[in-house]
Design a protein that fits this description.
About 10% of the residues lie in helices and about 30% in strands. By secondary structure, it is mainly β. A five-stranded antiparallel beta sheet has the order 4-3-2-1-5, with helices on one face. It is globular, with a radius of gyration of 12 Å.
């Protein structure tokens, strides 16, 4: 299951070892921003991807063959790792 707004680490697939967080954007219907970095604070190797809807988000995960370990953020799930 894809967790929205929660920090995760790619444990298998493309980009293994990178951290990610999915942000739901206020579009109608909602689109999603996939934030990625080499560290959980999103200071090194930061980048992002945009997908049009949840179906495209699922396809993005499938294309990368991602298995993600979802982590508990220290300040709670709503903590933003990096400014947009």
């Amino acid at each position: 299951m894809i967790e929205i707004g929660k920090l995760g680490k790619i444990s298998s697939g493309d980009g293994i070892g990178k951290f990610l967080k999915i942000q739901k954007l206020p579009d109608d219907p909602p689109s999603f921003l996939i934030l990625m970095a080499h560290d959980p604070e999103f200071h090194r190797g930061y980048g992002d991807y945009w997908v049009e809807d949840y179906e495209c988000l699922e396809g993005f995960f499938a294309e990368g063959k991602w298995v993600v370990e979802w982590l508990e953020a220290e300040g709670g799930e709503d903590e933003n790792p990096a400014p947009l």
